[in-house]
Design brief:
428 residues, alpha+beta, Rossmann fold, 2 domains, eight-stranded mixed beta sheet, six-stranded antiparallel beta sheet, 8 helices, 20% helix, elongated, OST48_N, DDOST_48_kDa_subunit, OST48_MD, membrane
């Protein structure tokens, strides 16, 4: 009894001492303390949204992401482009494990990106241009206060990502200064949230453009959004300056003469943060419901050729409120090794998706499967196993219409046999 009391006391002490993980706790790793003033508007936006920011130097020797099996933070922001070694117990392998466990990461780099961060971003499926490269635009550059710098550009090439821009992309262009990235053309998890215009390219500093490796606008990504298979999210921005106060405030005049009362940086950065922190593009479902047409209860099994009704409710998180989700590309499959039936679910105004399917004339163990993956939205994976049995002996039709000719032939044969017997026996 005394030993049990000691064990309980130890557990209580460990609970009180151990850090408590919450969805609002964010670790921010910065390169130097200047970010607290140069990016104060961005950090204030996060604080106003209720996030508890722990701003630390990236090489702080006391850094920890995890305490034994408990993650201390639920989200991570890295604004330390040139950092070569993290402090404390943090390294790239731990950050990847952090993402694999379903947590979120926001990284912003620039032309001084270190090999450490290049490797981490490469493991996430995004290729960063060589160190020292910069995105340039000799047509769409931005000038502020009479200064001209062709590496400060304005781009309005926002990606068509419904989950990221719930009410449409920003109307104003985003001011960008940093390094370019490229996304593999066959990637399904990595999305181009902001690309360059037709005159934007990437090249090394102080090198003739004809001699430097460069990336054209068609392949250039300025901001990449990554939706992991476990619904963890990552945003990689090629510019730390785009989050700064100077790029949020404006006004900035584009070389083409367009006057921006304010650039689209604030709106874009807020959208990126809300998306990566699962406040946008988040789907929820109540699960599958299925029964025979005309019934309401789910039976223990189905019979071949049954007509079934399948439905589920899907909600989308919009502005912190769950609202009915509307889409026309949600499908359900009836699978036994291979799909025997694949049907598109019809939506209603209240977010209920439903359809009717016919059980194939094959008995065995089937599964209802919904595997919904749409760019910018969290994935939905549902499956439910159901047995399908054949007809019982007393469930077959007694008279089959297609067999009527055979019935008539049998009856005619019997009638002919009786008539022949009658004539044989009674004819004189």
């Amino acid at each position: 009894m005394a030993r049990l009391a000691l064990v309980l006391l130890a557990l209580l002490v460990a609970t009180l001492v151990a850090p408590i993980r919450g969805d609002k706790e964010v670790l921010v790793l910065v390169e130097n303390t200047n970010y607290a003033s140069t990016h104060s508007l961005f950090f204030a936006q996060l604080s106003d949204a209720g996030y508890q920011l722990d701003v630390r130097a990236a090489d702080d020797k006391t850094l920890r992401l995890r305490d034994w099996d408990t993650w201390i933070y639920s989200k991570l922001i890295i604004f330390a482009s040139a950092i070569h070694d993290y402090g404390g117990a943090v390294d790239s392998e731990l950050i990847l494990e952090f993402i694999d466990s379903g947590h979120d990461l926001l990284i912003a780099v620039d032309s001084h990106v270190s090999d450490e961060l290049r490797g981490l971003i490469g493991d996430l499926g995004v290729d960063v241009e060589p160190k020292g490269s910069a995105v340039r635009d000799h047509v769409g550059y931005v000038q502020s206060g009479g200064e001209v710098d062709h590496t400060v550009i304005a781009s309005g090439e926002y990606g068509a990502i419904d989950g990221l821009f719930s009410s449409g992309p920003p109307e104003a262009s985003t001011v960008f200064q940093g390094i370019g990235m490229s996304i593999p053309s066959d990637s399904k998890q990595v999305l181009n949230a902001l690309g360059g215009s037709s005159t934007t390219f990437s090249a090394l500093h102080e090198t003739a453009i004809t001699d430097a490796p460069n990336v054209a606008a068609a392949e250039l990504a300025l901001v990449a959004a990554i939706q992991a298979r476990n619904n963890g999210r990552v945003v990689v921005a090629g510019s730390t300056a785009m989050f700064s106060n100077a790029f949020w405030r404006g006004p900035l005049q584009q070389h083409l003469g367009t006057k921006h009362a304010a650039p689209g940086n604030r709106e874009l950065c807020i959208a990126l943060v809300q998306w990566v922190f699962h406040l946008r593009g988040q789907l929820w479902t109540s699960g599958l419901r299925h029964h025979r047409v005309g019934e309401t209860q789910t039976p223990a099994h189905y019979r071949v050729s049954d007509e079934l009704e399948v439905s589920l409710d899907i909600k989308e998180l919009v502005g912190g409120v769950w609202q009915p989700y509307q889409a026309t590309d949600v499908q359900v499959e009836f699978v036994m090794l291979d799909p025997y039936v694949r049907q598109t679910l019809s939506p209603t105004a209240n977010g209920t998706f439903s359809t009717t399917i016919n059980v194939p004339d094959v008995y065995g163990v089937f599964k209802f499967v919904v595997d919904y993956a749409r760019a910018g939205y969290s994935t939905l994976e549902l499956s439910e196993q159901v047995p399908v049995r054949p007809f019982r002996h007393n469930e077959y039709e007694r008279f089959i219409p297609s067999a009527y000719p055979y019935y008539v032939s049998v009856l005619s044969l019997m009638a002919a046999f009786v008539l022949l017997d009658f004539l044989f026996l009674y004819r004189k």
